[in-house]
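Usage

Read records sequentially. Each one opens with the input sequence:
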Amino acid sequence: MKAKLLAVVSAAAFLSACANMNIPGVREMADEGSAFDAALHQNYADLAQAEYDEADWSDARYFTNRSKTAAMGMDGGPQEIAERSLPEGSGAEVEVARADLMAALDAGGREKASSAAARAQSSFDCWLQELEENIQQEDIDNCRAAFYQALAIVQAELDTAPAPMAAMPMPVPMNVYFGFDSAEISDKAMSVIDGIVEAYGKYEPEMISLVAYADRAGDAKYNDMLAKSRVDAVVKALRDAGIPASMLAISISGESDVPVSTADGVAEQGNRVVTVTFEDGM
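and closes with the structure output:
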C-alpha cells in the first residue's frame, strides 16, 4: 500500500508539473518584442526543455516563465546572483561576468548583436542554475564556455571590450571531458575549448596549465598513454585556435590523483578529463 501511495504521489507531482509547463506552447508564442527578446524566447525554451527532460521541474518552470516573458517583450535581464545558492568560491567570477554582461547589454549589445547577446544572457542564467545544482560539472563547464564565447562576440561587435584587468581573478579551471577509452573531442568538449580560447583573450593569463587524467579502469600504463593522447588533442585544438604552444604547460596524471576518488578498476566519467587552469603569474 505504501509503495502504491508513493507511486500515486509521484504521478500526481509529475502531472502537476506538466500542467504548469506547456513548453511547446510557450515556444510557439508570437514574439511581441525585439529581435533580442525573440532570441531569448527560444533560448530559454531550450533550457526549459533540457531541465524538463532531466525531471528538474523547478528549473524547467523557471526557464519556461523566462521564455514566456521574453516572448512578451518583458524580459528583466540576467538572473540576479543572489537568487541562486552558489558553491563557495564561485561568486567572484560570476559577479565579474554578470557586470561585463550588463555593460555589454547596456552599451547597445541587445540591438547590435541581438542573437549573441541573447545567447550570452541565457548561457549566464544556465551557468548559475548548473552551479547551484552542482552535480554535473560538464554542464557547468558547457554553460560557462557558451557564455564567454557569446559575450566575446557581443563585445567585439560593440568594440567596447573592457580593458585587461590585472585585479580580475583568473577564471576557475575548465574541464574538457572525454568518452570511455577515447581521446576524441566531442561537440560538447569543443564548446568548452571554444570557451577556453575566449577566456584566454579576455583574461590574458601568464600561463595555461593542462593536467590530463584517466579513470582507473584498465592498466595504469595504458591509462597514462590515454591521458597523454587526451591532452595532446586539447593542445592541438588550442594551438589551432591561435594559442601559442609556449603558453601551455602540460602534465600527465593518468589514473593517479584523479579528481574523483574511486577504487581501482572503476570507470568514472569525472576522471576522463583534461583540466585547464589559467595562471596569473602572481
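Summary fields computed downstream for this record:
- The chain is about 55% helix and 10% strand.
- The chain has a mean pLDDT of 87.
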